[in-house]
Design goal:
heterodimer; A: alpha+beta; Heat Shock Protein 90; elongated; B: alpha/beta; Rossmann fold; 2 domains; 4-stranded antiparallel sheet; 9 helices
């Protein structure tokens, strides 16, 4: 019983704005017909115009409800207003039953097909998202298992081996700390993704933020974590306000900076910059490391890189998760992200976010 | 042996409470532990601690409630501890009178720095001792002159506008402490100013351009994303 009801609701959802769209389009169709009627004596134009109206309504509203309703209303309206006898409903005149039946059929089929195509499109988009989520889960599970194994192993080694030397203990404990810090990053990345939630941009709260402040804070955090790597920050003289969820964008910058050190391997210097590029704000992270291996470049952002491919066998983790999270965040802001190797060596990751309407002139 | 300053650690997770206490005990403080809000409130009155480290997620009551009832009768310094995904709680706690916050996870260095700063602030009673004595506050090459309403960098007037000066003056009064956007806006433009941060952002950008060498790498006026601003503190 319950499921029947929900199916009904899904196929025929009712929303006031849809009703408004429906009424507005029907009204426009009627107006066009009336104008045409005043200049021509033919009656043939009314039905195609209403079929077009039904098509538009099915396209612009949700579910089957309004498309079908508009078909019926269209048939009655055309009969009442635009065909003889004007101002009365009469389906019985010779030829009328067939004409109006055809009209109704065409309308209904048009409406049903349009709605169906729309729903298929939505399904495809959902599949895409599902695939991204699956990739994410895969890389998370991997990212979590290895450090946990190491933590459990190291701590039991200390607890269960009383003869272990002080120096060995310290080494093991240091590993435990490093692994735990890695786990924290994984969790923070996951939190960022849940913040974005199910519907993409629907849940992020964008506010105009000063780009330089986000850069400054990200750099401050980076310095704390990697005191030995030199970082420079560059922002334009003119204040650049960018609509964003500041916490999430900072997370993107922190991820990119850490990747630059972790995967650049020989990185001693990173630079963080933001500048205006037309209607976009371009954030860029560059390093002087070994660059991105050419075979990985095209697949960087799809989350399919395995750790075995990105590491040189010394336990470096795969950068899949961090980058997938970055991309998810940037996309939720209607932005885009790219990576390239720089001519003089090293890699550059950059992303662009659209500026606010006022800046878009 | 010195009398050690007592610090109450309010945290329901045993392992976290234990490591915080271990760090404090080994750095010249004496840690006492409370597991619940009720226990915390009774221990505050019986132990009279010097400082409280308060986790916001407790089993029996909201950490913010504890803070509220504590602030009704005491100005005892409180450092709240919260997870990264609860910025709103952090901001609410600061607005309710918490002195500082720590974001989980934190390390030894960060914990001790926050504890030291919060204790230092209570010693210099009326907000900022230096201002009370000399009418100025100095950190690095930056000096805020409260009598002349000027901010000097390297001895030179940075020529701040009045509202820019008032922002820096306010941050200087609470140097080392994060002030939330909301707090600054209400202090400067009154309680009905709304919560539009943009005017504050623009003012801050202008101040940084007059005061900092590189506005994107501030040495004095720090941003804590999602929370507020903090003025550097001279040691």
């Amino acid at each position: 019983m319950h499921s029947e009801e929900s199916i009904l609701k899904r196929l025929f959802p009712f929303r006031w704005q849809d009703l408004l769209v429906c009424v507005a389009i029907l009204f426009c169709a009627a107006t066009v017909c009336m104008i045409l009627q005043s200049v021509s004596t033919s009656e043939g134009f009314a039905s195609p115009i209403f079929v077009l109206a039904v098509l538009l309504i099915s396209r612009l509203t949700n579910g089957y409800l309004f498309g079908l309703a508009a078909s019926v209303v269209g048939v009655i309206a055309v009969n009442y207003t635009f065909t003889y006898p004007y101002g009365a409903i009469d389906f019985t005149l010779s030829g009328y039953p067939l004409t109006f039946l055809t009209f109704l059929m065409v309308s209904v089929v048009t409406s049903a097909m349009t709605t169906q195509v729309k729903q298929q499109e939505r399904l495809r988009a959902e599949n895409e998202k599902e695939k991204m989520r699956a990739n994410l889960l895969r890389s998370v599970s991997h990212d979590i298992r290895t450090p946990l194994t190491s933590i459990v192993g190291s701590t039991s080694a200390i607890l269960e081996n009383p003869s272990i030397s002080r120096a060995e203990q310290e080494d093991l404990l240091r590993d435990v700390r490093d692994e735990a810090q890695w786990l924290i990053r994984v969790v923070e990345n996951l939190l960022s993704v849940t913040r974005i939630g199910e519907n993409g941009q629907a849940q992020i709260a964008k506010k105009d933020e000063a780009a330089e402040e986000i850069l400054g804070d990200a750099a401050r955090k980076f310095r704390k974590r990697f005191p030995n790597v030199n970082i420079t920050v560059e922002a334009p003289r003119e204040l650049l306000l960018v609509p964003m969820d500041a916490i999430l964008i900072e997370q993107v910058l922190v991820n990119l900076l850490e990747n630059a050190v972790r995967h650049g391997e020989t990185t001693t210097c990173v630079s963080l910059s933001v500048r205006r590029q037309g209607r976009l704000a371009k954030f860029s992270v560059r390093d002087n490391g070994r660059g991105i291996p050419r075979d990985q470049l095209p697949r960087l952002f799809d989350g399919t890189l395995k750790s075995s491919e990105t590491s040189s066998g010394d336990g470096k983790r795969d950068m899949g998760l961090g980058l997938v999270v970055c991309l998810t965040i940037v996309r939720a802001h209607n932005g885009f992200m790219e990576a390239q190797n720089m001519e003089g060596g090293g890699a550059e990751f950059f992303f662009c976010l659209p500026l606010s309407e006022e800046e878009e002139q | 042996m010195n009398i050690r300053e007592k610090i109450l650690v309010v945290e329901d997770e045993k392992s976290i409470s234990r490591f915080i206490s271990a760090i404090l005990d080994n750095n010249g403080y004496e840690a006492v532990q409370a597991r619940t809000g009720t226990e915390a409130l009774s221990m505050i009155s019986s132990h009279c601690p010097y400082l409280v480290i308060l986790d916001l997620g407790l089993p029996d009551m909201d950490g913010l409630e504890i803070l509220k009832s504590l602030r009704a009768w005491s100005s005892l310094p409180v450092v709240v501890v919260s997870a990264r995904d609860h910025e709103q709680d952090k901001v609410a706690a600061l607005d309710l009178g918490a002195d500082d916050y720590l974001t989980k996870p934190f390390g030894t260095g960060e914990l001790l720095a926050r504890v030291r700063a919060a204790i230092r602030h209570t010693r210099t009673t009326s907000d900022n001792d230096e201002i009370a004595r000399k009418g100025t506050y100095t950190v690095g090459e930056l000096t805020i002159d409260y009598n002349k309403h000027q901010v000097l960098v390297n001895g030179e007037n940075a020529k701040l506008t009045l509202s820019e000066f008032r922002i820096v003056a306010l941050l200087g009064k609470y140097a080392g402490k994060v002030l939330t956007y909301d707090f600054i806006i209400k202090e400067l433009w009154g309680p009905r100013a709304g919560d539009d941060n943009q005017i504050l952002r623009v003012n801050m950008a202008n101040i940084r351009r007059k005061v900092e060498k590189n506005p994107a790498e501030p040495e004095y006026l720090f941003t804590e994303v999602g929370v507020g601003y903090r003025l550097a503190e001279g040691e």
